[in-house]
Known about the structure:
Keywords: ATP-binding, Nucleotide-binding, Transport. This protein is of the alpha+beta class.
Amino acid sequence: MIYLNIDSIQKTYRKGDFVLKNFSLKIPKGKIISLVGESGSGKSTLLRIIAGLENRDSGEIFLENTRILNPKENLVPGFEEIQLVFQEYHLYPKSTVEQNISRPLLLFEKEYRKARVEKLLNLLGLEIHRDKLPKELSGGQQQKVAIGRALSLEPQVLLLDEPFSSLDTIQRRELIAELKTMFDQLGVTVIFVTHDLDDALLMTDHLVIIQKGKLIQQGGAKEIFEKPKNLYAAKLFSHLNPIPDKTRTYIRPSDVQLFKTSGIPAKIMERKYLVHYNQLTVKLPGGEQWLIEDKKRIFEVGERVFLKWNASSEIKF
Ligand SMILES: Nc1ncnc2c1ncn2[C@@H]1O[C@H](COP(=O)(O)OP(=O)(O)OP(=O)(O)O)[C@@H](O)[C@H]1O
């Protein structure tokens, strides 16, 4: 059943310059999706519109049967049921972790407030930090507090706008894995915005790809990897080598095999030691440069190699 219904949203900041174009997305209750797109593609604008914090030019947002009002229609913009978390934590610097999380609950009964804060401290693994000030926490811990505060009001929808981009890779990956488990336990519906596909996939396998304000493709990661709708969606997953003499046809570096004796000849121009393979830049007879993966790490710069691939791995648009 559709829970969050984003229907034909259009948005311009300047006349004629569409930031969101006819954007529609239907999300079931409790689903976690990752919204992926490059900088400037309209992701933050979309989240602010969903949260009722930004006016849309046309289109509607419904949370079940409740229409999300534009800020201009609402005395106090925003909705308790939909919480937005940004990269900047905006914690109260002179309040402890516990106080930061319980702050939105000031008008609630003491018993409820206490129980809710305990639950979140526990779920977020922050009990031992409860009396610390934000400046005594790591970036990841501070972001957990911000998420705890956003969750204190028991929102139905949590919108995460690149909240982990200031953290280092290891911190970020651990936090995403932890939070994903927590979101599943709470049954909260989540839209996670990122431009990093690895982060997106750690959170969920369900991707929504946005390009220049338009929804390009959505679905499971495997499905999009195997059948990308356009070059942009395909390139999110890996580099693409254009196949000479075949228009708009590409091959992924991971799908090219390297041989010492037969295949398409190429010369190794550059070699980079990456975590899982050596990345080779090779030059084809026509002068095209391709990226190739040498998984056995056996080829040297200057050597000649021969390339082969399965026609079924070619990607055509
Ligand atoms: N308040 C604003 N006034 C005018 N233009 C804006 C405003 N906010 C965003 N824009 C423009 O709208 C476009 C989309 O911006 P938005 O921040 O939504 O993209 P994004 O995908 O979230 O980018 P990023 O990943 O860099 O945060 C950009 O061209 C941006 O310059």
